[in-house]
Recover the amino acids of this structure.
């Protein structure tokens, strides 16, 4: 009896350890990633350090990337393309966001990827741009990054809004967010125990069937009677239904204004990755 209790306790402890490992944010052990790239030389050293610290803190808490970039020369690219290319070239996870101050195109741009497309819906991106635009217009570039990060942190704490969905701007395809069910340590332990019990039941059933087969083979065999019947299936009617599926976006879907919940307008960007976001000229 004591041995059985000990085994059950061991299984429970292992299940708890497994859940703890799963709940640890991806990449939380990485300490020295660069979050700020001031190529346009718009930030002073103390501001860069502050932004690095704040973005790194969010990374450790969520496992998502938060890049803050300034550009003096976009290389002939539009702000959206530059931001998305930069993200894909420097990402260590597809879940993240890049905030770009593009001095070449004179545009403030926010690009979202992965899970951040759900957190930063179109209306929330507008809020970020509202907060950052005034500061950029006054030449307070560090303040623009700071307030956008603060707003992002608020949205992360609020969580993904209920009913959030993505709308592909090219195809009109809608992808609804499915909130994952949280599994408690007790539920995990019960699942493990249930699995062990099920495995034992299957083993016992197979063993019983095998023994029954041995007993059956030891009995005198009788010649079975073979009866054949002829069955015919006749196809009487066949119907084919054609349905036209429109490829264009549903009315009012652009910009998250369609009913049924908040949305993010997305598109296929750099490297085939799906991006959301938006920008504003200054």
């Amino acid at each position: 009896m004591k041995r059985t209790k000990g085994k059950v306790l061991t299984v429970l402890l292992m299940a708890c350890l497994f859940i703890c490992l799963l709940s640890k944010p991806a990449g939380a052990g990485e300490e020295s990633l660069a979050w700020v790239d001031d190529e346009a030389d718009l930030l002073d050293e103390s501001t860069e350090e502050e932004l690095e610290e704040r973005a790194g803190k969010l990374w450790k808490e969520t496992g998502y990337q938060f890049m803050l970039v300034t550009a003096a020369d976009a290389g002939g690219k539009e702000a959206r393309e530059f931001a998305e290319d930069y993200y894909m070239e420097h990402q260590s996870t597809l879940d993240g966001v890049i905030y770009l101050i593009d001095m070449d195109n004179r545009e403030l741009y926010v690009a979202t990827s992965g899970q951040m497309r759900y957190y930063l819906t179109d209306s929330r991106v507008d809020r970020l741009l509202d907060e950052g635009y005034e500061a950029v217009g006054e030449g307070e570039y560090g303040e623009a990054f700071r307030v956008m990060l603060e707003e992002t942190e608020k949205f992360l704490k609020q969580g993904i809004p209920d009913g959030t969905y993505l709308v592909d701007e090219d195809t009109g395809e809608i992808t609804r967010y499915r909130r994952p069910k949280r599994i408690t340590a007790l539920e995990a332990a019960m699942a493990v125990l249930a699995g062990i019990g099920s495995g034992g039941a299957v083993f016992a059933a197979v063993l019983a069937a095998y023994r029954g087969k041995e007993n059956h083979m030891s009995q005198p065999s009788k010649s079975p009677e073979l009866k054949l019947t002829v069955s015919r299936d006749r196809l009487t009617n066949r119907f084919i239904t054609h349905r036209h599926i429109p490829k264009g976006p549903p009315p009012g879907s652009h910009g998250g204004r369609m009913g049924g919940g908040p949305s993010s307008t997305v598109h296929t960007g750099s490297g085939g990755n799906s991006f959301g976001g938006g920008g504003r000229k200054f």
